[in-house]
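A favour, since you know our structure tokens better than I do. Go ahead and set the record down below.
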Amino acid sequence: MSKRDSSLIKKENVIIAVVCCGAIFLLAALFLFMFINRKSSTRESESRTVYDEYFTNKGLIADFNVQENVQLCDYKGIPVQYSDIVSDSAVEDMLSEILKDYRQPSNSDSITAKYGDTINIDFTGYIDGEPFEGGDTKGKGYELVLGSGQLIGNFEAQLEGSNPGDKLTITVDFPENYRNEKFRGKTAEFFVTINSIYVTPELTDDFVLKYFSEIARTADEYRDKIEKEIYSEQLSEYLTDYVVENSKILDYPADFLKMLIELNHSTYENQYKFYNEQAYENFGVYPWNTVYEFFELSKEEYEKRVISEAYNTLSYYMVLQAIYQQEGLNISDSTAKEYLIANGYSEESSSEVLAKYGEGFAAQLAIESTVRSFLSDNCIVTREH
């Protein structure tokens, strides 16, 4: 992960799922999402601030001589070992994630449910011998990832080792702090039917021809394509990390730095409040008392981290701009919009981004892309034989 991207949070849409019309809540899944999202990139949240006074329309830092304040390392011919950038395990991990999107349910009783599997179940729950509201799937089926913590107590663990067609009786205890007071501390008995278990397909030539024929004809060709994509992205990250870490910043634009620190504070506070409110809305409790507790840091550690992230972000901007200017690289007037389109924005949404966030910020993204490509084209990659 690059210096530019190594921050506490990535602003993402978070889905707070509720099982069985509100009776069984996805508490562990919620906390997992919060733990991951709050420690990732701030690129999205940063772009929601007006950058016009900090970047020129050409994407350069305004009112500050970057070249005089950055001592660049030797950024041409950076030595790179191919195996340090991409490994066989990284490729297989990526392929596994891709193949998961093509899983299909199977009702074969020869398949056994194990940790991490997605299964489809139906169940009816009883408390004190009486069915309770929200404790019945009513035959509609419910998909569950075993081990995700979606259901209360050890519900999921009791499903491991089962097969499609099995009918199980599961007993779980509702937490003492459960939002619905009448369920708190109660023991519930669920009669569960295992409908199906999702099976991940193998990467075969036939599979590739069926789903990826536009980019590959065989499994080996597709695997090679994935390896090249991972290599391209990871090489770019490695090189930008290298130049930022090995270059020296003499001084920073004070107003820009101050804005980034304030922005980090605001972003992190908003994330903390958002997740706290979501937890209260769904579970009736505020899990965290302070933003520091939310990030599992002391107040001093939190403040240092917020400031450090601001310096890292600004260092990234400055070093890449210094290379851009020293090499005389250029982006055309249309490059900023093209960059946005190439990164998933439609023609309409890219225009909206430019209007909302400004040409300067979008142009800076294009400068970033241009410098990353330059570094990749001018490094020396060695492969082991």
